[in-house]
């Protein structure tokens, strides 16, 4: 693998030219045919021109397949990038010029194809190396790979894709970091480090004691049983120049480990619960990409970080807690903890930042996995304008979402006999919708809001060309494109 991947400018000095060919390509351009053996390589019976398949002509030229021209889309270019970077690594290539020929006609597709290719390359190039020890047999990274293109629009897309791929890998690295290292305090330290690297990005942290004084009963109670106390991380992107008065708020569930609390997870259900922070990690990765791209609008991110542990201090089923906005909650299940920390963050965002729209992202329910599997994330949004933005962002990012209903009946289903609402209705009906219905009580009625449940998409049990089993960084691209829709 490479230590890093960057986008170059122009084709000068590139040591390897990679010419993209489709199944329909019959004749190479004169500049390519000038290489001895190029035409013969194109006609080799074992070169099927499948997406990402590479054949070397000489030290200066290689051909890579893109499959049939029909149906050529960004997802295929992402797979091409993933396979290509592994082939380039085997060749030891350091500088690569991607020659598109005339495979794309519109500027929009050229840019998006370039972005998708580099997203695939960057995500496929990553592995979790933070804990390589004395027994590791992994080779050292090769160094930097520089990608450029003969097409300016494609090169611009490469730059954006590298930024997003890096943001996804950043989220994946934090997601994979184990709970004995990645505590709420650690998340705060990482967020501060990200802010220091970007001039217009600031980070503040609401400590456990401050959260208690502010009345954040959800955050306090979920995390108070742990020796690593909870906190709320707030990142604000405030560029000097903006092109819109809109302000977007992003909230990410950041449960650094979830035992279930006194509603203890059983059997193997606790394994992998370090991924219960993946919503927050996706938000953090998106903020990193937004800052690096210098997006000209204000964005605030809130990460309510807590560890759901069992101790004499832990909250219990039957407890009644008062939330930041004054709503009382009867706890029926301490394993429905994510919505409690999100609730305080949502109401705090509404009161403190008066956002034009707010989106929360969370690994919230197993029910959404049953309903939708790993094929897409479920989402809830009753505002048509925000819904349109989200769905367009899902299309451009290839991070698919599917809308589920949120009716007054669902909200009424969360009513409690002894407090205002329940954190989980013991009747399991509409299980994934219960989480959204609960959260709706903590968003001001005049604020457009969407809840995205990524429980099925934020990690994989099996690998593919782009990534091995483990965290996916899902949501970074979606949130980046959503923010970008306000300024495009």
Essential attributes:
alpha/beta, Leucine Aminopeptidase, subunit E, domain 1, 2 domains, 20 strands, 35% helix, 20% strand
Q: How would you sum up this structure, described in words?
A:
It contains 15 helices and 20 strands. It is elongated, with a radius of gyration of 24 Å. It folds into two domains: 4-128 and 138-157, Leucine Aminopeptidase, subunit E, domain 1; 177-484, 3-Layer(aba) Sandwich (Aminopeptidase), CATH 3.40.630.10. The strands form four sheets. Strands 7, 8, 9, 10, 11, 14, 15, 16 and 18 form a nine-stranded mixed sheet that branches. Strands 1-6-5-2-4-3 form a six-stranded mixed sheet. It is an alpha/beta fold and 488 residues long. Strand 3 (54-58) and strand 4 form a beta hairpin.
């Amino acid at each position: 693998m490479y230590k890093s991947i960057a986008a170059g400018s122009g084709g000068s000095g590139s040591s390897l030219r990679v010419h993209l060919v489709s199944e329909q390509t019959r004749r190479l351009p004169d500049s390519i045919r000038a290489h001895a053996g190029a035409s013969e390589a194109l006609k080799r019976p074992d070169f099927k021109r499948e997406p990402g398949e590479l054949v070397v002509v000489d030290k200066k030229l290689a051909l890579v397949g893109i499959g049939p021209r029909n149906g050529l889309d960004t997802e295929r270019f992402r797979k091409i990038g993933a396979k290509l970077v592994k082939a380039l690594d085997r060749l030891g290539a350091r500088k690569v010029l991607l020659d598109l020929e005339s495979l794309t006609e519109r500027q929009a597709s050229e840019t998006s194809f370039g972005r998708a290719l580099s997203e695939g390359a960057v995500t496929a190039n990553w592995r979790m190396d933070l804990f390589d020890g004395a027994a590791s047999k992994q080779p050292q990274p090769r160094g930097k790979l520089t990608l450029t293109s003969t097409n300016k629009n494609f090169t611009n897309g490469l730059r954006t894709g590298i930024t997003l791929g890096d943001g996804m890998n950043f989220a994946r690295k934090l997601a994979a970091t184990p709970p004995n290292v990645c505590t709420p305090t650690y998340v705060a330290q990482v967020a501060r480090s990200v802010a220091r690297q970007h001039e217009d990005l600031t980070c503040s942290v609401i400590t456990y004691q401050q959260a208690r004084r502010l009345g954040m009963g959800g955050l306090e109670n979920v995390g108070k049983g742990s020796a690593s106390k909870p906190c709320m991380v707030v990142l604000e992107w405030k560029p000097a120049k903006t092109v819109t008065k809109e302000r977007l708020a992003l909230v990410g569930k950041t449960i650094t480990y979830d035992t279930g609390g006194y509603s203890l997870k059983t059997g193997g259900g606790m394994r992998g619960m370090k991924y219960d922070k993946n919503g927050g990690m996706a938000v953090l990765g998106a903020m990193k990409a937004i800052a690096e791209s210098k997006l000209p609008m204000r964005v605030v991110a809130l990460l309510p970080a807590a560890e759901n542990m069992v101790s004499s201090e832990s909250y219990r089923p039957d407890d009644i807690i008062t939330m930041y906005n004054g709503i009382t909650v009867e706890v029926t299940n301490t394993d429905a903890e994510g919505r409690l920390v999100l609730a305080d963050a949502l109401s705090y965002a509404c009161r403190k930042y008066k956002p034009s729209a707010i989106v929360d992202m969370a690994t919230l329910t197993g029910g959404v996995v049953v309903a939708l599997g790993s094929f897409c994330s479920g989402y809830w949004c009753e505002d048509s304008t925000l819904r349109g933005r989200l769905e367009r962002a899902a299309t451009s990012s290839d991070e698919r979402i599917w809308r589920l209903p949120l009716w007054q009946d669902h909200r009424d289903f969360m009513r409690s006999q002894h407090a205002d609402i329940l954190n989980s209705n013991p009747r399991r009906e509409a299980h994934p919708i219960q989480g959204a219905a609960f959260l709706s009580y903590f968003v001001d009625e005049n604020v457009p809001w969407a809840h995205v449940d990524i429980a099925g998409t934020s990690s994989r049990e099996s690998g593919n060309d782009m990534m091995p089993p483990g965290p996916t960084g899902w949501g970074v691209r979606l949130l980046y494109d959503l923010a970008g829709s306000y300024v495009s």
